[in-house]
Amino acid sequence: MPAPGENLRVNGDRLWDSLMEMAKIGPGVAGGNNRQTLTDADAEGRALFQRWCEAAGCEMGLDSMGNMFAIRPGTEPDALPVYMGSHLDTQPTGGKYDGVLGVLGALEVVRSLNDMGIRTRHPIAIANWTNEEGTRFAPAMLSSGVFAGIHSEAWAKDRKDAAGKTFGGELKRIGWEGAEPVGERKLHAMFELHIEQGPILEAEGKEIGVVTHGQGLSWTQVSITGKDSHTGSTPMPLRKNAGLGMARVLELVDEIAWRHAPHAVGAAGHIDVFPNSRNVIPGRVVFTVDFRSPDLAVIQDMEAQLKLGAQKICEEMGLGIAFEKVGGFDPVTFDAGCVAAVRGAAERLGYSHRDIISGAGHDACWINQVAPTAMIMCPCVGGLSHNEAEEISKDWATAGTDVLLHAVLETAGVVA
Fold first, then answer.
1. CA distances (Å), origin 278, targets 232, 236, 351
2. Mean pLDDT calculated for residue range 111-115
3. What is the pLDDT of residues 53-73, one digit of tens each?
4. Whole-angstrom Cα distance, residue 156 to residue 183?
5. Each residue of 143-164: pLDDT tens digit?
6. Contact (Cβ atoms closer than 8 angstroms) between residue 383 and residue 199
C-alpha cells in the first residue's frame, strides 16, 4: 500500500484546544501542571480523556496497572493494532505538554481520520501509560515496564510514595484499576510523540526529531551516614558530617560525567537531608545519582567509578555509605522500519527534520522490547521541560502530530 499523500493533515486548532483543556486539570502554581500519578487530578484527567475517546468512536480498555487503551476498529479485526500514545501524569512542577502531547496528539489522529473518513486495515489504539514520570512512585515508566515484563505486577503495586501509600492502594482508591491482565495485549507497532525536552531541535531550526535511539539510564540511591551533632558546639575535627560527604560525592558525579563527554551526563536530582535542621550537622543523607549515556559500557563504567570513588571519600571522612540500584534501563535502538516511517512522513510533509537520540526515558523504551517502536519529537522552547515554564508552539505540536498521522497510516494500511 503506497504511503498516504501529503495533503492529509490534522486539525491543529482542535489539538491545541484539547491541550489547553486538559491543562485546566491539576493546575500548577506558575502556569504549568501538578497532575501527579494516581492523584484525584490524575483521575479527573483520565475521565476527560475517556469521554473524548468514546466520543471519537473508540472503545476503552483498562488493565490492572491502570493503563488505558482506546481502540479504533480496523477493517481486519484480527490484525494487531498500531498503538500511539504516551502519558497524562506530570511532575509536581510539570509543564502542559510533556507526555500529554503524545496522548492528545494520538487522539487528534483518530479524530482527523474520522473527519476524513479514512479506514485502516489494522485497528489503531491510543495508550495512556500509568506513572511514566516516576516522581511519586519510583521507578519511572513503571506500568509500561510491567506491561513489557520488566517488572512484576506485585513488585510495582508495592511501590510506596513519600507518605507511605502504595501504588496498588492508590490505583484502587482513584478507581482506575482494570480487570484486564497487564501485558495481555499484542501490538503490531507503537509510535510515541513527545516534546524533545532538550534544546537541539529549536537551536537548529528543525521541526521534527526522528528518534533513532534512547539513552540508557542508571539511578543509584546513595545513603551516607555520619552523626547528628550541634553545629555550634561540635569542634571541626570531631564532626562526622554526612552533608559534607554528599557534597564531595556530588562533585565526583560531575567529574565522572565530564570524563565521558560529550554524550554522557550525570547529576543528583533527589536529595534528602536528615534531620534537616538549621543548627544540626546532618547525620544522614539520601540522594539519587542519575547517569545517562547511549553506550551501555559507559553507564557501567560510570557506576563503577561512583562506587569506588564515593567509598573512598566516605572512608577518609569516617562516614558510612550504602548503594542501591533503584532504576534504570539499557540504551535503546528503535525499530528501523518504524523509524523509516517517521522519517519518510516528515520528508513527504516537507517538515525540516534530523535524527536525534532521546536524552530522557519514555514508555516507548520499554514497549520497544515487545513490539516495533519509534518516537517522534517536536521542539520545546529553550529545551526546558519538567518545569512549569515548559512551552511549545501550536505549529510544532501540529507538525509532530501530522508526522504521527502519516507514520501510523503507513504502518496500519489505508483501505482504498
1. 11, 17, 54
2. 98
3. 999 999 999 999 999 999 999
4. 14
5. 999 999 999 999 999 999 999 9
6. yes
CB 361 within 8 A of CB 265: no
C-alpha cell at position 106? 494520538
> Which residues are registered as beta bridge partners of 288?
221, 270
Q: How much is the pTM?
A: 0.85
Bridge partners (DSSP) listed for residue 59: 71
C-alpha cell at 124: 489503531
Nearest to 97 by CA among 215, 193, 199: 193
With contact defined as beta carbons under 8 Å apart, do 236 and 349 qualify?
A: no
Are 249 and 302 in contact by the 8 Å Cβ rule? The answer is: no
| φ, ψ at 9 (rounded to 5°) | -140, 155
Using DSSP, how many helices (H) and how many strands (E) does the chain show? 12, 15
Look at residue 302 and give its three-state secondary structure: helix
| DSSP of 235-285 | -GGG---HHHHHHHHHHHHHHHHHHTTTT-EEEEEEEEEES--TTEE-SEE
pLDDT at 245: 98
**CA distances for 251 relative to 200, 255, 256, 257, 266, angstroms:** 27, 6, 9, 10, 10
Query: Within a 13 Å sphere around the CA of 76, how many CA atoms are in the beta-carbon half?
Result: 13
User: Residue 28 corresponds to which amino acid?
Assistant: G
Please name every residue paired with 209 in a beta bridge, in sequence order, or none if there are none.
Answer: 354, 377
